[in-house]
Amino acid sequence: MAQRTVLVVLFDGVQSLDVTGPVEVFAGAEQHTPGTYRVHTASLDGAAVRTSSGLTLVPDGTLADAPGPHTLLVPGGQGTRRPDPRLTDWLRTNASRAERLVSVCTGAILLAEAGLLDGRRATTHWAYCATLARDHPAVEVDAEPIYVRDGHVSTSAGVTSGIDLALALVEEDLGREVALTVARHLVVFLRRPGNQAQFSAQLAAQTAQREPLRAVQQWITEHPADDLTVESLAARARLSPRHFARAFRAETGTTPGRYVDRVRLEHARRLLEDTGDGVEEISRASGYGTPEAMRRAFVKALGAGPAEYRRRFRPLTH
């Protein structure tokens, strides 16, 4: 098996965890299976860079002298807000050398600036998705998933999602057992599915301004197995169903039904990850009623049924 070179681009204002998270994954895989990965870091002039948190990273050399990469990894950080034109020029000219192009967080902005995401589906940190879509209309921006893979180009959301994506790439290259071993060492999930939402149902929706609606949001979160029809929730808010549905959407940015779906999915995921309860018990506790109803919801949202989700994404601390 040929060794894969992972070239990590460094620049002033880079987010340190965007760099170190994926690097630890690839380095861990190399330790487990020697000869599989060579991680090389480089900046434009080979000088040390100062990260957004104040840490200093010393690269292995210059981008001009860097070895030809199998995987070119572009992290994000504050330095992507006003990128050095020399860096985007280098990416535009040299990215085609890589068999695999990867960005973490706002590294997607650098790829977009270089024209490398035109016509592709991509994501970035949720706070910058609107900016990416506005400034680069040729990019199909998806703000929901933690990472997106479109051909040989992979983009991930904020910070720790770079670890998820790196684990997925290791699993693709070396198999599940190696990725599992690396994940255990890092005390993380084997990997979250790429289409898992970037944030929870409670964070994805806005908090309602009016007290009756805020109270209903909290009730949904605490009682996912209860009757959560629009009629029942409207009665709790002391509003007509039509008025409630209209007000809920206006204040939270989502419909009551979609909010309930997200809460139930999140509740079921946590039970699968954190408990040994059976699927039938979890389906009742999460408001699905039957295992089949929960399975359909999981497949639609996550691309995997509950049993498969538990097998692949359970915590790996033991």
Features:
single chain; 318 residues; alpha/beta; Rossmann fold; Arc Repressor Mutant, subunit A; seven-stranded mixed beta sheet; two-stranded antiparallel sheet; 11 strands; transcription regulation; transcription
Summarize the structure.
The protein has 318 residues and is α/β, with parallel strands linked by helices.
Strand content: 5-15%
Biggest sheet, in brief?
7 strands, mixed
E-strand count: 11
Which residues form runs of ≥5 with pLDDT under 50?
A: 198-204
Shape: globular
Helix and strand run: EHEEEEEHEHEHEEEHHHHHHHHHH
CATH architecture of the largest domain: 3-Layer(aba) Sandwich
Distance between the termini: 31 Å
CATH topology of the largest domain: Rossmann fold
- The number of distinct helices, counting runs of at least 4 residues, comes to 14
Range of helix content? 40-55%
Provide the spatial order of strands within the biggest beta sheet.
5-2-1-6-7-11-10
Mind telling me the CATH class of the largest domain? Alpha Beta
Task: Please tell me how large the radius of gyration is.
Answer: 22 Å
| CATH homology superfamily name of the largest domain | Class I glutamine amidotransferase (GATase) domain
Return the structural class.
alpha/beta
Mean pLDDT: 89
How many domains? 2
